[in-house]
Amino acid sequence: MFILLFTLISGVCEAAEIPEKKGNNDKTIELTMVDKNATAETKALYANLWAIRDLGTMFGHHEGLLYGRYWNNEQGRSDVKDVCGDYPAITGLDFSQIETNSEKSINGPLFSDLRRVAKEAYSRGEVITFCWHADNPLTGGTSWDNSNNTVLREILIEGSAMNLKFKTWLDNLAAFNATLTDVNGKPIPVIFRPFHEHTQGWNWWGKKCATAEEFIGVWQFTIKYLRDTKQVHNFIYAISPQMDGVQPKEDLLFRWPGDNWVDFLGMDCYHGTNTKAFSNNVANLAAVSAEKMKPFGVTETGQEGIKKNGSDYVEYWTKEILAPITGQKASFVMLWRNMYDPSNNRIHYYAPFKGQASVPDFLEFYKNPVTLFSNDLPEMYTMPEGYSVK
User: Fold this and answer.
1) What's the rounded Cα separation, in Å, for the pair 175 and 168?
2) Domain 5-389 CATH superfamily
3) 307 pLDDT exceeds 80?
4) How far apart are CA 329 and CA 283, in angstroms?
5) For residue 7, which of 373, 385, 383, 322 has the smallest C-alpha distance?
6) DSSP secondary-structure letter at 306?
């Protein structure tokens, strides 16, 4: 039996009743995935991404298990855990540079360490998500090299140099993914977020460099190659348009690849301190989620340096994150990374760390029943009662 969940909204406690477990006569909730042959654990995770919305919203941190503001590559450590005593429920990682078989990912950690922290997080029952800041396969530049508008077009020409090169990149990604296994050798489920922020112009796959047809074509091509050719069956495919200001719901479906090609509805929202924008966009995402029967979450957010008007924003967590997500049934909200920078040369961090000014407010955020951390999670890799995934 589930219990009553009490949520603190604007200082008033309100009881939000969580449904009882389904009885034998209740209709099963049926969800569908892009990969009909997904592993049992991946399907279970997908169902739990929907079911967990009745418990609360998982908190995540990108690369937070690899390094922190003042430490680097210390096994078992996390800035978030240093502050509240618990790990984030979601850990974000990046496939960037795996395309060239590099030993190091984009921000410096070894891929062997990405593998290690993914296994550690999974062993605790946490959830792993990967984005992919892939280099520009045509120019040799970074993800941010948007100097050529023919890249996607060339990838889609079967047998072309770009087509063959991009396939080798996917081969390398699939090979690394095959090493992400549990203690029994089973694949660890991953929420995979390729071609993120495609609504922006900074990337070689974005609106500046590709037509709608080209973006949709490469999205579908990538999934088909990984799923059907490389037999990758531990991915939940997430899309994540960038929505920073107050934007209409239709913007969330910009260059939508099709309902059969997306599992999870994400959104990267760097709203700063524009609470209205974040609240508006989360509400719109919740509406699209309900319409399409797909779970959703905030796949990236945060305020660099946790500042407001140049000063420490000591109420950031309860005002800018907790209030907008309360009642919206988001599966998770993930903050961007804390750059390892012991000399404080750059104010590039998005989560609190020991001594940071917003820690007291973060502890209130942590204690609120709406937010879920590692110790709050149910069995995320066991199919919840009353659910079916096909």
Assistant:
1) 10
2) Glycosidases (3.20.20.80)
3) yes
4) 9
5) 322
6) G
